[in-house]
Amino acid sequence: MIDVVPSLVAGAAFGLALAAPPGPMNAVIAEESVLRGWAAGLKAGLGAGLADFVFFLLALAGVVSVVQQYPTLQGVLFGVGGLLMIYFAYGAANSVRATFAPSSVGDDAVGTDGEGGADADATDDTGAPVDLGESTGFRRAFVLALTNPYQILFWLTVGVGLLDPGRLDVLAVVPFVGEALTGVFVVETGSPALIVGLFGGIALWLACFPAALVQAGRRVDSFAPAVAALSALVLGGFGVSFLLEAWRVLA
Description:
Structural class: mainly alpha
Number of strands: 2
Strand content: under 5%
Order of helices and strands: HHHHHHHHEHEHH
Helix content: 55-70%
Number of domains: 1
Largest sheet: 2 strands, antiparallel
Distance between the termini: 53 Å
Radius of gyration: 21 Å
Shape: globular
């Protein structure tokens, strides 16, 4: 039992490090969380998490390596992903206009799922109802993740390394004290414990990140439109960069 603990801890830490950095998927999760509540944010996160699980299965089967062999396919994925991000950025920008009102998100705002967030029946300055529309966060995050070449390349490189059976003495490479720490923290790559820890760390982020955003949204009236605007900027920025990369690869 003690032998699996380092692998679980290392997997969880790696999963958190993988899920936490700002990017297109977290932008979608943030937008859904502050506009529609914790459950909507969690669903969006599960879309991205499901894509990771799909890539995990494909990596096990060796299918993902096909992408590495065909640069043209990588370029097409960059182009499709870029166009999708720009399209979703446009949708996020529309959400800014729909929610930019003091009464649309406030201390007493309750999402349609019973959690904090902007309510689908929120009103604008004139008292007219604001329709935020049906949540599409799960589908958006799932499609973005599936067409994200960086995510695919992760499973081609680091992911394959994690699945390859072996032993990694993490602390043995620490300068000056590595010899004394040899054997203290040994991770079993390719072990079920490492994989469980990896997806456990991702799941922890997917649950806590929307909750933190919802709590912040309850305290700041303008938080929802601000996050929606930031989401639009992040998605648009990544979309343009993906299109430029597609042009570079395919040109």
